[in-house]
Amino acid sequence: MTNFTWIDGSIVGTYLLATMVAGIMVRKYVSRVDDFLVAGREMNVFLGIASLAATEFGIVTCMYTAQAGYTRGFAGSIPGLCNAAAMFVIGWTGFCVKPLRDSGAITIPELFEQQYGKFVRWLSGVVIVLGGLLNMGVFLRVGGQFLVVCCGLNPDYLEIAMTVLLVGVATYTIMGGMLSVLVTDFVQFVVMSIGLLATTFLVLHHVPWDLLVSTVETRFGDGGFNPFVNEKLGWSFVLSNIFTNTAAVLTWQTCIARLLSAKDSKTGRRVYTGTAFFFVCRWVIPGIWGIAALAMLDPNVVQGIGAQFGEKDGTLFAMPYFLASIVPMGMMGILVAAMLAADMSTDSSYMLTWGSVIYNDILAPFRRTRWSERKGILWNRCIVALIGVFLLFWGLWYKLEGNLWEYLQTTGAIYLASMSTLLIACCYWKRSNNWGAVAAIVTGAALPVLALSLNLFVKVQALDQLGAPILQDGKPLLEGIVKHYIGDDFVNIGTFLAAGAAMVIGSLLKTLLHRRPPVVYAAHDPSASDMGGESS
Amino acid sequence: MNLTEMLNNHAFWGILTLAVLIWYSTVTVYVAVRGVVDIKHMLGNLAEKQRDPKNQVK
Question: Is the N or C terminus of chain B more exposed, i.e. has fewer CB atoms within 10 Å?
Fold first, then answer.
């Protein structure tokens, strides 16, 4: 049941060709590592806004935000409000981002070296890459699943379609680096925006506002509009999202890459304030699509689609299935082009920006002599290609369980908690040092990894609100032990608090243990009482 | 799309949805136009840097 025809295929094909040509044409401007990684720091405000918006909206984003709308109603869009507020405040005040951009660093760990030393720079790079790769590992599969459900693509060709798309994206990213990413992002932003707006007007035409509201009221009560009165969300959900989104604005590689590619810190901050409200759009628009799907679809059908993909939960597929039924021929091509645009911009930027950390920080100890620009660019190209290969294989075999946003939040927390702590301390706490930094990194990574592992390997019976076991296909539904007893939000909040505490305790401990013994001066020396220890 | 419904029935979410649609429609056009200028400047500056003998790549 889909309206994807040869006309739509032609629209998509034309778009893909135009993007590839644009991406490859700019490769001639890349002659230095700086050009490849940060576009020679020549990015201006509006290109930055287009690029950041396009990067931060992929098919995966559309899927999990629509899932939030389907499973939580309007209250599911709260993370978007938190993200927008964080981005606006940070852009407006320059909190952390001003000193970071003014430092001239290419990556965040490079700035850390100035305060915490070489080892912390390397370790930060490892943690950033680990968290980022796990996070982006699910992008391809989810993108492919959208295409299968929405355009009626044969599931047997899902892997082939994903591979072709990734090879195309990798080709222009490898050739032109950040320059290709920025230029293709711009094209993708325009195509994506047209598709998103046209589809939203169509959805609101098919499902009137009153029906959306009454559906949410019936399914979730007041909790569908207000997260604080929602039993499954509550204050912990809001607080967890405030922490995550603030940390993401400060340290998420794709955001920071735009700041560091900007002409100066003022331009970078304007990109942040200018893009802030887009993060509300990013959650509200697909959220409305998800609520519309909830209003129009039979839940059993949705569950059946999930089973078709071997997933326990079918809620992720409600939105594309609903769109397939209402979007007419011709417009389907625009929608799919928009979604591919969104996905390609995300994939290219993720591969490049995480690759930049591998090159700049993880490989730094192995570059004993200064590499030539050509050698540096070659290495960067190889790293991007290897990340592409990783994405392909991880994306093919990893099966997602539960809510996609919670998975992304948990994997992101592996580094978000520690890196944001390190960055804030680096910029504003002179007494912070490498002991505190290492303690924060280890604590920040250990808690989410432990929670993720326990959830994967130790299962308990899922219970409903009355305490009775939930059955699925006649069998008891199982869920991870940490998710069951603690909850993803509390794990996330705990990780941030623990990383902060580890930084303070570690730094103070080093200061205390390395304090010089007091120097004994002559009794008449008045300066003796003012002499204190010095932290290294 | 009924505007009165959106403003009367759960006004916060209705107004927010309208704001999203208005903001996104207008900003897309503005950013699309100004972004082209930014791309031209960026590529022009990079080409100039490449021509500068001080920046010849080794």
Answer: C
